Amino acid sequence: MNKAQLRKTYKQLRANLTTDQVEDFSLAIANQLLSMKLWNYTFYHLFLTIEEQKEINTDYILNILSGKDKNIVISKSHFEDYSMTHYLLMDNTRIKKNKYNIPEPVDGIEIQPAQLEVVFIPLLAFDATGHRIGYGKGFYDRFLAQCKPETLKIGLSFFEVTDAPFEALDNDIKLDYCVTPDQVYAF
After folding, report:
1. Residue 94 to residues 16, 45, 74, 98, 167: CA-CA distances in angstroms?
2. 46: CB partners within 8 A, 6+ apart
3. Burial class (CB in 10 A: 0-12, 13-18, 19+), 141
4. Strands 103-105 and 118-122, how do they pair?
5. Contact present, 176 and 142 (Cβ < 8 Å)
6. What kind and span of H or E run contains 95?
7. I want to staple 103 with a disulfide (CB 3.0 to 4.6 A). Which of 48, 80, 111, 179 is the partner?
8. What's residue 181's pLDDT?
9. Whether the Cβ atoms of residue 125 and residue 5 lie closer than 8 Å to each other
10. Residue 1 clears pLDDT 80, i.e. is over it
């Protein structure tokens, strides 16, 4: 299967999930994260859930990070050049959905990608080598290329690793880990 076919397959699998399954799987992923040795850092980047796409509910992870008093960074997407700007999430941060239903900060204190130590990454599918398939616009590959090489890149997936091979491009950034409801994969 090529990336476009896999993207379509996994979007459909996710669309078939019930609201209860999304919540249960999201909580299980957050619990898997608690077992990992990644809580000694300061700056964590987290995506906010696109509910309409049945993405992982990252509120559970947000609560963990807040409880551990970490600096949480969220992004604003720029579709004209497929880039992102990153902002520190604070109590007074205003969040607004863009035309693609992506919750984003309206403004705030900008954080540079090189400051980030852990990045949680949305995806549709991933393979045994740590390559992932997202929505296909390259937002995260561009963003991750700006991070330090030692930045932990952690994918979050409702589904286990795919056996279907797909071609990784030269600019695709590999994950260090991918966390599913049942397992933590290390690459």
Report:
1. 31, 17, 12, 13, 39
2. 58, 61, 62, 65, 72, 73, 74, 89, 120
3. middle
4. unpaired
5. no
6. strand 95-97
7. 48
8. 98
9. no
10. no
Would you say how long the chain is, in residues? 187
Per the listing, tokens 């090489």 go with 149
Asked whether the beta carbons of 74 and 48 are under 8 A apart, the reply is: yes
Two tokens at 163? 């056996």
pLDDT digits (tens, 9 = 90+) for 107-158: 999 999 999 999 999 999 999 999 999 998 889 999 999 999 999 999 999 9
Written as six digits, the tokens of 115 are 């400051």
Q: Is 119 helix (H, G, I), strand (E, B) or coil?
A: strand
Phi-psi category of 74—alpha, beta or left, where left has phi over 0 and alpha has psi -120 to 50?
beta
Segment 163-181, tens digit of pLDDT: 988 888 888 899 999 999 9
